[in-house]
Write a structure and sequence with these properties.
By secondary structure, the protein is α/β, with parallel strands linked by helices. About 40% of the residues lie in helices and about 25% in strands. The chain has a 7-stranded parallel sheet with strand order 3-2-1-4-5-6-15, with helices on both faces. A 7-stranded mixed sheet has the order 10-11-12-7-13-14-16.
């Protein structure tokens, strides 16, 4: 019998989109959030769904949301600040877990700190199962399969397309601001190594022209080396910033220096908390429809010769995130995951099944 799907953070921007996507698939998730009035009203509006009250400040309420065999979706961010209780709740219950984070620090924590416990509990944890960073995992997996055993390096770039940026939710602004204070990482010479965010700049071909992007830490660094034993280097780049990419490098470098001063980091964190609020809404359907996404992955040999190049295009990142989370949770509840522990999207579902799920969510190869 399929386990139930529990959506924690249901009343936030991404949570509301995900709840609607689940209902559109015929699912009846349990909606969970900290505000009883809001979550109950939302549950009634979506078809008299079940609801629950849970708050990360009271971890026991999060733990009570799930049992063994259930699927817990978390959209509660910023994840570095608020994401831990949901991961621990899933492990304690033996429930599968998906989240919408794009925060490298949190992703690294899931892979490096929670893998063993999840394996022992018999559950799978798929962090960053949204626009951040499913498309690159799919594009990278396809490129590695086509490149074959000679693949030694993989470079992945993320871009927005269309006439509008599609806006940015309050949660995304808070997460992005927080990431400016955190170290990033890459996969170099066969291992994950720490580096400064936006420390490298490169360009990728997107719709016939070269577009710049800056380096970021993501789930691809942990997940994709599992697909190819000979893979030595994985770099992921974010191309949202266009001509400002080089300036962003400078900001990152300056921030890195400032946060070394005693007390400076705490002061910056306090300022960001006051100035950048989460859960403040995001672009509506019309705004999201104006933009799309383009992801490219290039697999190369030891001499830097490109062996395979994969381009994927799809909808606005928020739209994709909601739809792929709904697909992933429904699939995990019905069929389970292919492995346990901290997983990448390909580990959890297999490359071809993931490709099918992404196609359902509007992301296809071009």
């Amino acid at each position: 019998m399929p386990g139930q799907i529990v959506l924690f953070g249901a009343t936030g921007y991404t949570g509301r989109l995900t709840a609607a996507a689940l209902v559109a698939r015929g699912e009846r998730p349990v909606l969970a959030a900290r505000n009883s009035h809001e979550v109950k009203a939302m549950a009634r509006k979506l078809g008299r769904l079940d609801s629950a009250v849970a708050d990360v400040s009271r971890p026991e309420t999060v733990r009570e949301l799930v049992e063994r065999g259930d699927v817990l979706i978390s959209t509660v961010g910023p994840f570095v600040r608020w994401g831990g209780p949901a991961v621990r709740a899933a492990i304690a219950a033996g429930a599968h877990y998906l989240d919408s984070t794009g925060e490298g620090t949190f992703i690294r924590e899931v892979f490096e700190r929670h893998d063993d416990a999840a394996r022992a509990a018999g559950c799978g944890l798929i962090t960053a199962f949204g626009y951040d960073w499913v498309p690159g995992n799919l594009a990278g997996g396809l490129a590695l399969r086509e490149a074959g055993e000679a693949a030694r390096r993989l470079d992945i770039g993320y871009y927005m397309t269309g006439s509008g940026a599609g806006g940015m939710s309050g949660g995304t602004r808070a997460s992005t601001a927080g990431m400016m204070l955190e170290p990033a990482y890459t996969f170099r010479a066969g291992r994950v190594v720490t580096e400064r965010g936006a420390s490298r700049l490169r360009s990728f071909p997107v719709r016939g022209r070269e577009r710049p992007a800056v380096s970021v830490g993501s789930s691809e660094h942990f997940a994709l080396p599992r697909l190819a034993d000979g893979l030595r280097d994985v770099d992921v780049y974010l191309g949202w910033f266009g001509s400002m990419s080089r300036a962003l490098q400078g900001v990152s470098a300056a921030t890195s220096l400032v946060t070394r001063v005693p007390g400076a980091r705490s002061a910056l964190e306090g300022t960001l908390t006051r100035l950048v609020k989460g859960s403040s809404g995001g672009p509506d359907a019309a705004q999201r429809a104006q933009s799309g996404s383009h992801v490219v992955a290039i697999a190369s040999d030891a001499d830097g010769q490109a062996l395979a190049e994969v381009h994927l295009e799809g909808p606005n990142g928020y739209t994709f995130t909601a739809d792929i989370l709904a697909w992933g949770a429904a699939t995990a509840a019905r069929e389970g995951l292919r492995a346990t522990g901290a997983l990448g999207p390909v580990d959890g579902f297999g490359l071809d099944q993931l490709r099918g799920g992404c196609a359902e969510a509007g992301l296809t190869r071009v």
